[in-house]
Amino acid sequence: MKKTILALLLAAVAIPGFSQTEIPKARRLKWWQDAKMGLFIHWGPVSRIGREISWSREGYGKSRYDSLYLGFNPTRFDAREWVALAKASGMKYMVLTAKHHDGFSLFDTKTNDYSIMHTPFGRDVCKELAQAAHEADMPIGWYFSVADWKDPDCRNPRTNGIFAERVLEQVRELLTNYGKISLLWIDYEGWPTPVAPKKVYDLARNLQPEIIINNRLEPFTPDESHAYVGKYADYATPEGFVAGYGKVPWETCTNMGHQWAWKFGDEPRSLKESVHTLLRCVGGNGNLLFNIGPDSTGVFPADFAARAREMGKWIARNQAAIYNTKGGVFSPSVDYVSSYRGKQVFVHLLDAEKNTLALPAIPAKIKSARLSDGTPVRFTQSSKGITLTFPADKIDPIATIAVLTLDKNAAGIPPAVPLPRSGSLAYARKATASSAVGQFYHDAAAAFDDNPRTAWKIGRRKDVDFSEYYGKNLHYQSPEIMALYEPTGWLEVDLGKPATVGRIKLGESRYGQSEIRKFEVLYQKGDQWVSLAQDTAMGDWEKIVTPVKAQKFRLAIQDYHGYFGVNEFQLFPPAP
């Protein structure tokens, strides 16, 4: 088997049209970043019982779960209808679960018999969907789990190498047999990938040079999959949430409903929540991969399909502010987001109860402000900020969009953070840290953004060879994996100039009790760091301190257990 796969890989490299010359990332990503939203499809034999894909296997009974495919016969499946729904919903690409963690393949794999070809249905779903997508000029991608909970060779100390070869063969099948594949969405399920990331990445690049690959080949924790783009990835994949502005390419994956796979009695999220999820991704400079699970017959539930089309109609009326834009020049706030193209900035008012927005100042002059239908929007602009007043009779219950025309290209304007809400002296100030687990969401700046949904988390140790851990049966919460991350660390903020601080407020992202067992807040005095406060548990922590005047403050984490996150580090003047 090993010799066979090696020969196939060498053959793939030699095929005319394939190239080992990597296409620049910016060029690969452009169509995807312009597209903004794709349809995620979680599907398989588990739809027969309405439970979660893969994750219900243990509770349902492994043997019973693994036998569901014997009765899987989705006779109403129509690939063209799936593509038509995606297009009508404003979605510009599609990603199907070709193989989830449970090991079942929706494609004609020759590596085992646990596939769609060995069900009563007996048709290659991936082939039919790829054909329909190509006919409609719809980019198609495969979700693929490099793990397989059913395969006894997966992460087996003696036979994992054999399993890894099988995985590479499945990747080769998926990227060779179905024409152009635009995206490979690898999943991480809590254990280091059983296949060396470089092997998967290089194979995909050789077979499909233009393919986009997400960041879940390398993570050792879910936080890394949410916020870190490693060496073998193009973009990050926050899951189930949207928070803030991304400095690297990213895509939130989440559900229109409340389960990845089809669920009995599930209901779609409201039109407002669905659209706002998209707009927050657009305004945060990211994408949305919106999931709907078909039922066991191969049909999307009628209420979900209706909601998706309703969403598509709203998007069609406002598409100029969504597609082919970048997030900014105002980074997201509670009641607005913004996007831009050229000299036009689109400000999306998300709160239908108000018609006035206060925005931060930007280094550009607003020449005009109007709604998409040409109705003027009143505005004032000064060095301190901008005020927009939307026509009260034109407020859209979902989102109202003002088009601002600037005197310069918006691309050169750095994102302007929202006006402060907390009053913290540290808000949006320059932040640094000893290490961080992410490049956004979990970087140092995440603790100074007045947004408790983002959090700084300590990063990896530098004295570890992480490649040695791939293929090991070690969960991310195991002591062995936890030991791969820095045991202590610090978070620092520079206020820009000396300021008097008399109150400190800290917030910890956690489940249950505090994982931060010892910490200290310090300030810089000359060349020394002087202690200001300390404690043995964080959680939601606040303390009034003897006032000190300083420019730089630091939070030192001295003892923690688990995967903590500092969601806010706030400094306030003394009480009057």
UniProtKB/TrEMBL annotation:
Q: Which residues form the Glycoside hydrolase family 29 N-terminal domain?
A: 26-318
Listed name of the protein: alpha-L-fucosidase
Keyword Signal set for record? yes
One GO MF annotation is: alpha-L-fucosidase activity
Q: Name one Pfam family in it.
A: F5_F8_type_C
So what family is this one in?
A: Belongs to the glycosyl hydrolase 29 family.
Name the keywords, alphabetized.
Answer: Glycosidase, Hydrolase, Signal
For this entry, list what GO says about its biological process: fucose metabolic process; glycoside catabolic process
Instruction: Check the record and name the InterPro entries matching this protein.
Output: FA58C, FUC_metazoa-typ, Galactose-bd-like_sf, GH, Glyco_hydro_29, Glyco_hydro_29_N
| Record function comment | Alpha-L-fucosidase is responsible for hydrolyzing the alpha-1,6-linked fucose joined to the reducing-end N-acetylglucosamine of the carbohydrate moieties of glycoproteins.
Q: Which residues form the F5/8 type C domain?
A: 431-563
Enzyme Commission designation: 3.2.1.51
Q: What is the uppermost EC class here? A: hydrolase
Q: Which Gene Ontology cellular component annotation is one that this UniProt entry carries?
A: lysosome
Q: How far does the signal peptide extend, from start to end residue? A: 1-21
